[in-house]
Specification:
heterodimer, A: 254 residues, mainly alpha, 12 helices, B: 374 residues, 14 helices, 74% helix, 0% strand, globular
Chain lengths: 254, 374
């Protein structure tokens, strides 16, 4: 006992520091010992990770096949798709993981989700999408109808530019459809060059320009259906254009 | 959103640690006698908050049980992975050592005077170093001085490090700025001083003692100076951004005027910075009676705490409120009960206070209490 005390005092440095050094040395050796025990054997062999982790990841079941595999049996679809705007999408992004399907195509079908939800993941309007990315407002763009009715998912460009005005002017068409003017064709009031349907901005349809246009049906002496309400074209509404007070696609008599 | 309220709590807590420690260091290094009453209290506060500092990170990462891996397989090139070492350095080499040397004399006295289990407990804390000779006490003093000097850069590193993590994310225009570590540092000092105003005031009142007004006045002066530096830095950063006007400026402007208006303009700037500055300046210029002065300092400190918390919020949450393509703003919806939710965060902010209370019981910061025990 004496000799230990003697040795202790013989060590250089103040008493406090000697004791602290012991504590810190203990902690440090703990750290080294833990490192020995806890660091996995193959850690660091090929980088800052456990090399055998690769084996355990490899052992996980494969669930995705990759597009190149689907192509072997579905070359018709892939030919179609690779020439379309969807060429960069992998099959499984819509159809889901295909490994089971490869084993038994008859039992495990890769039916993508029905309805509009799938397409709107990528196409619903969102300001942070890249400029020019085709986007729609699902509330406005042909609501309720499944997208597949008009767009082939493997070649989404609409097969032909639509003939009906409503495909592009949906809101007006839907408004007019429930108005007193439901029976009137768009082209009755808008003389529309055919070119407008293919290249809308290059050929602008005609719009009614004066009160006489409406007067042709609504004037006192107009030669039109008897059910049509009449007004005095001279006095009614002053000299204002009719559509300053009546929305032509949904006319109301207040 | 990836970083939620837990990551707001984390820089808030480390800021309090660094701030409280730097305040304590002022007393030691520059020998400011007035704030002596807060010295030990600041050290204990820093320790209590430091003990909790890693918790928000561990909870956020989702595998708290793997905490030790950061220590045993250090990744030297990753700033985030170095956290463990920054933390341990600060905890072991700075705070605990300084507290030990500062308290050694008292620990020996307590070990002699207490009885039963307590005696052994204090004996253990002294590490058996019972020498109370003049020479040995003199050494303790020197050691504390030395560690303080080592501690100031360490405290700067601890919180500057947190700022560095954000400032070095170059893909995020809200964070990426060399000024961020420095701004973090000064907001840390601000929050630490304000915290000590509160803790010193409340603990003194609870003990039924009277508050040492010169100390409070000095703290308020420091708080004012730190606030002004902090505000200048933030303004500099702001002007710099506006002048540079890189492409992100539009979305940042939208974010500030829409999503962050309340938390940045109203809470951080007006309530948390300008109002405390005005309050303190007014009390300093006019001859305000001590009673009222105390109250004003208190209010200022509370406003500063709220302000600094929203500073952290604005940095962490703000940095994620715009899309990475800079085209639009996003939302943050806070959980209430989840592991990354509000309740846990409140718990994490209360926990250090509980630890501090226990700590004060074990290591009384007031010299007279140790005398009274005898």
């Amino acid at each position: 006992m004496k000799t230990i005390a003697h040795l202790w005092n013989a060590l250089p440095g103040p008493d406090q520091v000697k004791r602290l050094v012991i504590i810190f040395a203990l902690l440090l050796s703990c750290w080294f010992a833990l490192r020995q025990r806890l660091v996995p054997k193959t850690f660091g062999d090929a980088g800052h990770y456990r090399l055998t982790a690769i084996d355990s990841i490899e052992a996980q079941p494969v669930s995705y096949l990759g597009q190149s595999v689907c192509v072997e049996c579905h070359d018709d679809v892939s030919d179609l798709k690779s020439a379309s705007y969807h060429r960069d999408l992998s099959c499984e992004i819509c159809h889901g993981p295909g490994a089971m399907h490869l084993e038994d195509p008859e039992t495990y079908q890769l039916r993508p989700p029905k309805g509009r939800g799938l397409c709107t993941i990528c196409h619903a309007y969102n300001p942070s999408r890249p400029t020019g990315f085709p986007q729609i407002d699902p509330m406005q763009h042909n609501p309720l109808e499944p997208c597949n009715n008009c767009h082939d998912p493997h070649d989404p460009t609409p097969p032909s530019t639509p003939e009906e005005c409503g495909a592009c002017h949906g809101e007006i068409a839907r408004t007019k459809a429930i108005s007193h003017h439901a029976g009137l064709n768009c082209v009755y009031c808008h003389e529309t060059p055919d070119e407008h349907k293919h290249n809308p901005r290059a050929a602008i349809p005609h719009k009614p320009a004066n009160r006489q246009f409406c007067g042709a049906c609504h004037g006192e002496n107009a030669n039109s259906g008897r059910e049509i309400p009449r007004i005095d074209l001279e006095s009614h509404g002053g000299s204002n254009l009719c559509w300053e007070c009546h929305y032509p696609h949904y006319p109301e008599a207040y | 959103m990836h970083w939620g309220i837990l990551i707001v709590v984390y820089p808030y807590i480390t800021g309090l640690v660094a701030g409280a420690f730097i305040l304590a260091s002022l007393e030691r290094v520059f020998n400011v006698k007035e704030i002596m009453p807060t010295y030990r209290l600041s050290l204990l506060t820093a320790l209590s908050f430091l003990l909790i500092a890693p918790l928000p990170l561990l909870l956020h990462l989702g595998h708290p049980e793997r905490f030790y891996e950061i220590m045993i397989t250090p990744h030297l090139q990753s700033a985030m992975a170095m956290f463990g070492f920054v933390y341990v350095w600060y905890l072991m080499m700075v705070l605990i050592l300084e507290i030990w040397f500062e308290y050694r004399q008292d620990l020996v006295v307590l070990a002699r005077e207490e009885s039963g289990l307590k005696k052994y407990f204090y004996y253990l804390l002294t590490l058996g170093s019972l020498d109370l000779s003049e020479k040995s006490l003199q050494f303790d003093k020197k050691a504390v001085g030395f560690i303080t000097i080592l501690g100031i850069p360490s405290a700067f590193i601890l919180h500057g490090y947190v700022g560095f993590i954000f400032g070095s994310i170059k893909a995020n225009p809200w964070w990426s700025s060399v000024l961020i570590p420095i701004v973090f540092l000064f907001s840390a000092i601000v929050s630490g001083i304000a915290l000590m105003v509160l803790i010193y005031g409340i603990s003194t009142l609870l003990r039924g003692k009277s508050i040492n007004m010169p100390c409070m006045d000095k703290l308020a002066t420091y708080l004012l100076n730190a606030l002004i530096i902090d505000l200048s830095l933030e303004t500099l950063d702001f002007i710099h951004r506006v002048y540079e006007s890189v492409e992100s400026i539009h979305i940042m402007g939208q974010m500030i005027s829409q999503k962050l208006f309340i938390s940045l303009i109203v809470v951080q700037l007006m309530l948390g910075t300008l109002l405390p500055i005005v309050l303190i300046v007014v009390t300093k210029t006019f001859n305000v009676p001590a009673e009222l002065r105390r109250l004003v300092y208190f209010m200022a400190a509370i406003f500063v705490q709220i302000g600094i918390f929203s500073t952290r919020w604005n940095v962490v949450i703000g940095g994620q409120l715009f899309s990475k393509s800079l085209r639009g703003l996003t939302n943050y919806k806070m959980e209430l009960l989840g592991i990354e939710g509000l309740l846990i965060s409140i718990g994490l902010l209360i926990l250090p206070v509980v630890i501090l209370i226990v700590m004060i019981k074990i290591l009384p910061p007031w010299k007279e209490d140790i005398g009274a025990a005898s």
